[in-house]
Predict the 3D structure of the following.
Amino acid sequence: MKIQLLSIALMILLLANCSEKKTVTEAASVGTDSTAIPSVSTSGPSINEESTTKVLEHHWAAFNANDLEATMADYTDESILITPEKTFKGLKEIRDNFVFAFTIFPKGKSTLKIRKSIVQQEVGYITWEATTPKMKKSFNTDTFIIHDGKIVRQTYAGLVAP
């Protein structure tokens, strides 16, 4: 209960101070809990839906073409990719993930199709399906957080059809 009230108070303070671009720590000097409140900036990267769309389109084309270098150009060393099997942090781990993924979706032998694509500010969401020589992936979903033209966070999940 105490944590919920503190969370609600922080959200109210954050919203009230958003136009002044203060941090949560600056805005929240309330509460008696000795736990430090992490600083969260409200003046993050610029949000541009056109840039988000452009990165998503580039990423899909690069992935569909099995172009490892073009795919990796969408990430930074601070990027994180979360899948059901593992969380990949940084360029090396994310590269290893795509090297493996490209063996599952061999170029010229796989068909990938986007079913839905939604962009809201810095968030991109796609659902897609794929047929490969070894399997049919009936439903896949990726969510991307894109800042300054790079994917900084991504989640993936998918189902293999029987």
In short: The chain has two domains: 1-43, 49-160.
